[in-house]
Amino acid sequence: MNAADTHPFLEMRNVSKTFGRVQALRNVSLDVRLGEIHALMGENGAGKSTLMKILSGAYVPDEGSEILIDGQKVAINGPMAAKQLGIAIIYQELALSPNLTVAENIYLGRERSKAGFVDRGAMNAGIEGLLQRLGATFTARDRVQDLSIAERQLVEIARAVHAHSRVLIMDEPTTTLSERETERLFALVRQLRGEGLAIVYISHRMKEVYELSDRVSVLRDGTYVGTLDHADITPAAVVRMMVGRDLSSFYKKEHDAHQCRGRTILSVKDIRDGGRIQPCSFEIHEGEVLGIAGLVGAGRTELARLVYGADPKVSGTVSVDGKEVHIKTPLDALDAGIAYLTEDRKLLGLMLDMTVSENINLGVIARDSLPGGLLNLGRAKKRALAAIQATGIRTPTPDATVGGLSGGNQQKVLLSRLLETKPRVLILDEPTRGVDIGAKSEIYRLIDKLAREGVGVAVISSELPEIVGICDRVVVMREGHIAGELGGTPGAQPISQENIMAIATSAASREAA
């Protein structure tokens, strides 16, 4: 970044926003420079979205708030005003018209015409060079409905660049992208930074923030906490700013692994699926948190689905409390005391158009039905209220629709439903994916509480600090089989990120050889 770029292009000063009696923002300030990626972080409810909606013209700030572009005070009283000032926003839910072509979406509202008719030929020609510059593999004539999510996101970026935007806001852009698509997006974001755009990047993912950002600003409870330069960005520093406490407190265990660990609850012997999963054996004890680690594609989720009966096994046995159980369906697993939290809560877990109460009660409401098969709605309401309090679900009412909650609260609703089944074994697949730091901490405390109560918990996670921080013992998978084990007994190889990666990448076996 050259010296001229150290001056703010965008400044937001003392920005406040009140909704009725709720003050969502209080005197927040933010400055962004041309040619930088400026990350904006904070827990759900910290005010990030409200601040960006003010910048993009969706909300009007309270009196006394100031926004300056290139040193000049401006009034952003609507989305069109924001666009005219060179501000573009790409939301998580992409705002494209799928039935239109790429060119028609990019020119939407600014169509070229000839003799009173839309000149599609000129529009197609007008963006082909831009698409090539951005590395698009599709053409201006392709319909958006035929593109992948990553390609549609590129159309949004192309639209912003084509409109000569100087400030580009990206809200959780990698949520639905694969690892390879994420890498391509990062390369494009860096390219745009090199071309002089000011990029505001909103993300919960510390790895992304560290890898991409030149600076990071943090909001907490609707207020501005501070800004860090790249050299000062560390997970501990950002977490401390976001939640007001040290990172070490997130992984603090109140359960004593040696005292809590009791007899074997779950025993899996030589289970396999005839495909990716080779014969796998492991155990989970009472009061133990078992980590299941490995690289993407190692077979962690596939193994869990075999145990739970979501996928058919070819051979192997599953025993609960020393007794073999025959699991062919997830219902069989629940009856045996095994519950499974899917890694895709929206597609495979929650009923997003149903209420919080309905989702919590979904697995158990039939158990306490009234004579004649009528649902006991009174008991269901009490159960929902108790679960909301126990897991800290933030919802205006039990009758609120789950789809309207934040990712962390949706995850706690799904966890509450599973806990109502009173499982002996709880398998959690990526339990903190897509949730903010505060919700992660609450989920960790819940896992610790379950261990103290004697539940056997298995945690599948791609976040190695999470595995190291909360697990008592770890099995590491590689290419469809369990390649090694860490921790659990005195003298065992300790649980660490280095040891996990050594087994996951076969480095340990190469060194032994």
TrEMBL record:
A GO MF label: ATP binding
Domain called ABC transporter: residue spans: 10-246, 260-504
Metal-binding among keywords: no
The encoding gene: rbsA_6
Entry's family note: Belongs to the ABC transporter superfamily.
Keywords: ATP-binding, Cell membrane, Membrane, Nucleotide-binding, Repeat, Sugar transport, Translocase, Transport
Entries under PANTHER family matching the protein: CARBOHYDRATE TRANSPORT ATP-BINDING PROTEIN MG119-RELATED, D-ALLOSE IMPORT ATP-BINDING PROTEIN ALSA-RELATED
Listed name of the protein: Ribose import ATP-binding protein RbsA
PROSITE patterns membership: ABC_TRANSPORTER_1, ABC_TRANSPORTER_2
Keyword Transcription regulation part of the UniProt annotation: no
